[in-house]
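Sample intake — legumain
Collected from: Clitoria ternatea
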Amino acid sequence: MGVFSFVSLALFAIGSAAIQVPYSYRKPSIDSESANNFFGGKKWVVLVAGSDGWNNYRHQADICHAYQIVRENGIPKENIITMMVDDIANNPRNPVPGTIINQPNGTDVYKGVVIDYKGTDVNSTNFLKIITGDKKAMQFIGTGKVIEGGPRDRIFINFVDHGTTGILGFPDDLLYADELNDALKTMYASASYRMVLMYIEACKAGSMFDGILRDNTDVLAVTASGPRENSYGCYCRSQSGPYKTCLGDLFSVTWMENWDATVSQPSTRKRTVFHDFKECRTNVTESNVMVYGDFKTGHEPLSAFIGYKTHSKTHLSAEPIMDITNEPKNTVSSRNVRENTVQQQLASHELSFSERRRLSTESRLNNEMRLIIDTALRTIYSKVVKARPEIKSKVGDFYEPNHLDLSLDVFPCYRSILNKITESCFSLPRNPYALDRLTIFANFCIVDKHIHQMVEKLVSASCSKVQKLNLRNVY
């Protein structure tokens, strides 16, 4: 890579105010959308909310909003594949049953959404088969829709959920960075796309691509957070009103509201992915919106991936899907959404005695289960560093792990340890709180790719009592 390319990447890493990209990456100034249509390329959209439960309301709200945008922009239903558990719209806690909103007093973004994979069909195995076009494997699951892409097609993947070091979550399993990378390599080898754009909303989302995603395969990933930081929910606390949770995620809401605000402007059609990235990077201040992969894709219009609603001469405006507001957004770290909501409610003077007692009990029990999780994982850590004292200075402390760089060859070790924890201790996918404690185990594998053989034995010895508790939904 040349000097100018190196400088460009450095500028992205520190969040420069202007997009600086080497001249060698710049493409000829043509109407890419017209060229794409001329050559017959299709647009495919994959929308994934990888969680369930009312506390994760914001994930499904984001995905429903994204669905409304791409449908308004003319993406055919048959080219949109949606995965979401679908337990929010008709949840008993929903103050307006049958609807989902993505901003205070917002319009219903659930109406008309076609969900291809619901409930237990929302898992990492199905997701990987969908994006790699394994139609046979998905034949009797959900609608069976997969990406049936070709060399002229463009693919937009919007994934919203919990995450941690090298991992994205699903309700009952985990998606590892090497698995996603293998799927992208399969897609590239089979010429199933011209370009891929991914928007990933999750804590530590950058760790899925940092040092992993190649820069010459026409794949670009924009993430809500860097490799070592949390993403943030928004429209939380008082702004959520009777919903008593966060209505959206800050990065997701930002890019979609930016689109809604400019949908009536003719220039929006040519607004590039990098332009959208810069706007998000400027407006999302709690975490660092990052970009990884092939920068050529960043110079393409965002509309080349998510479509654009054309306007006739007699109707030059379009209604935004959501009202645009300049009101500051109440934000909460995605790790603390439910805990923050409970504490806010307990601080209220309007709670009934029975409701206050219920929430106090919930908070106390959750804290007790957090302690159990911390104790179990810390015990494993302590036994490892006792057996291998020289490793502690390299991996860091349990609560403050060192910042080590992931590489693809650490994942067999990492996955093996986490599978053993889920098998012998408690389900990692089912307990979001535990995800924030996993970096230390990635560090073990970075330092020694064969350490899992020892760690697995220590897991079994540390978790015999914990497993019987069947911990679930610890936030």
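Post-analysis note: Residues 1-38, 312-318 have pLDDT under 50 and may be disordered.
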